[in-house]
């Protein structure tokens, strides 16, 4: 009887793991063209000479990355929590922290001035993060 219950538990657990892995690596539900379009707008804003546009690019890229984490079913009540969770599986995403911290400065410190190419560097970091998660938007 214990062996039967153990077997049933194992099959259920295996099913849950397969479902999570399939969902995590699936972009079938994403409208890739829509994501590409949004990403192109972000890249154009980042290359702008206008600092406000560059600020908007970093904030929008951060939001788009968080949207992807949510789509992949990563738990957490904030982007920071989701990023911490997924970094355990994708250590290369540690660089995304620096881009996210820049976003936080832009949002919470109104007097913060972007330095040379700072927005473009952050966008490149987000692009690497998307690619690491299997979504190549370049």
Summarize the structure.
By secondary structure, this protein is mainly α. Helix content is 70%, strand content 0%.
Explained architecture:
It is a single chain. The protein is an all-alpha fold and 138 residues long. It folds into 2 domains: 30 residues; 102 residues, no CATH class. It is 70% helix and 0% strand. It is built from 6 helices and no strands. α3 crosses α5 and α5 crosses α6. The longest helix has 23 residues. The protein is elongated and about 70 Å long.
Give the topology, please.
Blueprint: H1 2-24, H2 32-47, H3 51-71, H4 79-87, H5 96-108, H6 118-132
What fraction of the residues are assigned to beta strands by DSSP? under 5%
DSSP strand count? 0
Number of H/I helices = 6
Mean pLDDT: 85
Structural class by secondary-structure content: mainly alpha
Tally of structural domains? 2
Globally, the shape reads elongated
Distance between the termini: 55 Å
Classify the helix fraction into a percent range.
over 70%
Major beta-sheet overview: none
Low-confidence stretches: none
N-to-C order of helices and strands:
HHHHHH
Determine Rg (CA atoms, Å).
19 Å
């Amino acid at each position: 009887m214990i062996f039967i219950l153990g077997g049933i538990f194992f099959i259920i657990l295996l099913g849950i793991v397969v479902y999570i892995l399939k969902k995590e690596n699936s972009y079938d539900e994403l409208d890739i063209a829509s994501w590409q379009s949004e990403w192109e707008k972000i890249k154009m804003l980042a290359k702008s000479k206008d600092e406000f546009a560059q600020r908007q690019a970093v904030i929008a890229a951060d939001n788009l990355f968080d949207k992807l984490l949510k789509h992949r079913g990563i738990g957490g009540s904030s982007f920071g929590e989701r990023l911490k969770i997924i970094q355990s599986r994708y250590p290369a995403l540690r660089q995304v922290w620096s881009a996210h911290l820049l976003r936080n400065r832009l949002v919470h410190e109104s007097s913060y001035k972007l330095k040379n190419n700072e927005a473009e560097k952050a966008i490149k970091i987000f692009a690497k993060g998307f690619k690491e998660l299997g979504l190549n938007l370049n």
